Amino acid sequence: MTTYRIAVIPGDGIGPEVIDQGLHVLKGLGRRFDFGWKFRSLPWGSDYYFKHGRMMPEGGLETLRPFDAIYFGAVGHPEIHDHVTLNNLLLPIRRGFDQYVCMRPGLLYPGVKSPLNGKKARDIDMVVIRENTEGEYANVGGFHYEGTPQEMAAQTSVFTRHGCERVIRFAFELARRSDRRRKVTSVTKSNAMGYGMVLWDRVFEEVSAEFPDVATESLLVDAACMDFIRRPEDFDVVVASNLFGDILTDIAAMITGSMGLASSGNIDPERRFPSMFEPVHGSAPDITGEGLANPLAAILSGAMMVRHLGQEEAADALEAAVVQTLEAGDALTPDLGGKASTEEVGDAVLQALNGRNNGVPRIWWVYENLPRRRGRIHLASCSFCNDGQGLHDSTAPTGRWYGPFTTTDAAIEQALQTRAEDLGGCGVCQPGVGTLRTR
Ligand code: GGG
């Protein structure tokens, strides 16, 4: 049995609360899909700082290096300047392990209401690729005459050809994947920032020539902010600098319902170092310890980690369990209009994963190897959905199609036929197109 070694840094504020639920669900996922976990929790963060005067021990990166991945909660404490907490824990890990891709999906999940009028599930389906090691976050600068009336501060953005090229290429390669729509939008502010971002624009144009099948768009960041609100459905893969990527993904989180659903992966695509998975949200000291934090962003970040580790099927199942929880709507935290606690949401996801739906075993069907199609395939709701017999269809953000349901063999057969019409074939009526799996 494969066992994954994961360094867990719950961190500050609500970090430990949401990570607890993430671990609860990940342990259940491992049991179900026959892989093991060896979690090592590291008590780094602001409490560590109060005791030791630093956010992590000297040599912290060496401690993390042998792990298969890092699962991170949040960082930030009201009594410590944010630049201290961030620059001494999260950013050194991103830079030190050359996690140059920060991948942040912005998906409007079924069962979630967007504040934008008339948006339905999956109308918004973008992935923001944020450059994660340089740009505006480069730790270059300093104070001069600090604390005097003459004081000045210099903060330098660093854009290298190498740094721009590799993250932009990653975005193009992602846009070509079967679950994406072959479009990359680059976001800069090169009208005002005439060096680094001009270099970025130039590299974007050069790399795009290698991907003639991928549509491109270049936006200034102010226009991009506006267009995320005005026409979010037009975005597929968005690539942006460190700071702009951070800002844009907060907008993406809000238009898709909540910061509490926004997941992220800080990825070293070359796999020389462990990658790190964390919810986009911060430590939220205002709700810490109240059981109000939404653990779904941490759980979805866990699913991203599971996919990175190569357990695709398990990642699909976990995302489907989250979708089922959202659609069911009876275990949601207040940010999504519910009354459930952090723990109750974690339990609901685990129950959805384990198919404990009134004691009836769940049957999963998974369409794999579907012919590539542009746009979205919308499954017509079937007679079972309409009859309210507990059939829920969901689609994974990965482009695999699956539906968990609890029903009888005859109903499954009929449901598959319904989908056969929608999809032009399935594993039953057209062997080889899809697979029916039962678990
Ligand atoms: N879970 C992520 C977290 O704690 N983020 C705190 C933060 O301020 N992050 C800034 C950034 O990601 O650039």
Plain-language structure description:
There is one protein chain. This protein has 13 helices and 16 strands. The longest helix has 19 residues, at 15-33. The strands form 3 sheets. A 10-stranded mixed β-sheet has the order 2-1-3-12-11-4-5-10-8-9, sandwiched between helices. Strands 14-15-13-16 form a 4-stranded antiparallel β-sheet, covered by helices on one side. It folds into 3 domains: 1-105 and 269-354, Isopropylmalate Dehydrogenase (3-Layer(aba) Sandwich); 125-255, Isopropylmalate Dehydrogenase (3-Layer(aba) Sandwich); 358-439, Alpha-Beta Plaits (2-Layer Sandwich). It is of the alpha/beta class. A hairpin with a 5-residue loop joins strand 14 (394-395) and strand 15 (401-405). The chain binds glycylglycylglycine. Glycylglycylglycine binds next to strand 12.
Q: What's the overall geometry?
A: globular
Could you give the count of β-strands?
Answer: 16
The CATH class name of the largest domain reads Alpha Beta
CATH architecture of the largest domain: 3-Layer(aba) Sandwich
* Backbone CA Rg: 22 Å
The helix/strand class is alpha/beta
Overall mean pLDDT: 85
Oligomer: single chain
Distance between the termini: 19 Å
The CATH topology annotation of the largest domain reads as: Isopropylmalate Dehydrogenase
**Major sheet: order of its strands?**
2-1-3-12-11-4-5-10-8-9
**What percent strand?**
15-25%
H/E topology pattern: EHEHHEHEEEEHEHEHEHEEHHHEHEEHE
How many helices does DSSP assign? Answer: 13
Please identify which CATH superfamily of the largest domain we are dealing with.
Isopropylmalate Dehydrogenase
Ligand names: glycylglycylglycine
Q: What count of domains describes the coordinates?
A: 3
Helix share, percent: 25-40%
The largest sheet is: 10 strands, mixed
Uncertain spans: 356-409, 419-439
